[in-house]
Amino acid sequence: MKNPKFGYARPTTLDEALDLLASSEDAKLLAGGQSLLPVLALRLGSPDLVVDIGRVPGLDEITLAADGSVAIGALVRHAEVEDSHTVAGYAPLVAAAMPWIGHRAIRNQGTTVGSIAHGDPAAEMPAVCLSTSAVMTAVSARGERSIPAADFFDGFLTTALEPDEILTKVTFPPWRTGDRGAVVEQARRHGDYALVGLSARVHVTDGVIDEAVLAFLSVASTPVRVAAAEESLIGSAPSTDAYALAAEVVSNNLTPGADVHATANYRKHLAGVLTKRALEQALMSEVAA
Ligand SMILES: Cc1cc2nc3c(=O)[nH]c(=O)nc-3n(C[C@H](O)[C@H](O)[C@H](O)COP(=O)(O)OP(=O)(O)OC[C@H]3O[C@@H](n4cnc5c(N)ncnc54)[C@H](O)[C@@H]3O)c2cc1C
């Protein structure tokens, strides 16, 4: 289908972009266009103005802070994140998510922050943000604010961002000694959106799990954690029995929907299988030790 009619602006400063957003009734930001352009072409959205931030300076960097946290700017493409040694070394769950996002051609254009701002519950990065306690930096003409990932994803394609705000960067807290993690998913074909996916992070101290975060994608209108399964892992040594129990609790607690791709029961079962797989991958070295 053809795009609806819309105005187009390509600001060259952040302030100009913010003014354009503030002065329009119904403006939409354009970053990599890999989600917005399909939305327009399918007439699922019809903004009066598209504000292309592609020429705004200062948003295209991956920064490592002294404390080990990693910030990804709004114009950094998935492919740059995938290729970054900084991300691989200091934000390993972000790196682990990248190969699951569509195909490399999509990742060459799409931005990681755009994926987070878009808030698609079938996307990998929102779940990764939840499992790593990422912090969003949102800027508007009114100033800057930080939003923790736990408060950011409000509903299907809906986030805590106000219409006049730009998500300028997302910061991933330091990966600590004892942190382990994995991103796993199952799709019908490689590169498709996941039927179910999971970003898991556990922390181990002296051979015992003392923190666990299991953030699922494609099972609800936002990424979701399963607190009961996380709690079942706390205090356990990494073991196949502990993973099996967590998997059972996940399957019993999730209430995914059904669609043409999978029934609700299949998704529940898959979520349990993926829980075991993620924990095995994340804690492989602990069990072997
Ligand atoms: C064929 C195909 C397969 C794909 N498969 C996957 C997949 O498996 N997993 C996955 O996660 N994604 C997938 N994607 C989506 C891809 O990852 C997108 O690149 C990403 O979701 C959005 O990033 P973008 O830079 O393209 O954003 P855009 O399309 O430019 O924008 C998306 C939305 O976010 C808003 N936005 C963008 N940046 C900002 C910002 N900085 N501040 C505020 N709002 C902002 C826009 O206004 C728009 O509403 C796929 C896309 C395609 C076309």
Q: Report strand order across the widest sheet.
A: 4-5-10-6-7
What is the percentage of strand-forming residues? 15-25%
Which class best fits the helix and strand makeup?
Answer: alpha+beta
- What spatial form do the alpha-carbon principal axes imply? globular
The helix/strand series, from N terminus to C terminus, equals EHEHEEEHHHHHHEEEEEEEEEHHH
Radius of gyration over C-alpha positions, nearest whole angstrom:
19 Å
Q: Based on DSSP secondary structure assignment, what is the total number of beta strands? A: 14
Give the biggest beta sheet: 5 strands, antiparallel
Q: What report would you give on this structure?
A:
This protein has 289 residues and is α+β, with helices and mostly antiparallel strands. The protein has 11 helices and 14 strands. Strands 4-5-10-6-7 form a 5-stranded antiparallel beta sheet. Strand 12 (196-205) and strand 13 (208-217) form a beta hairpin.
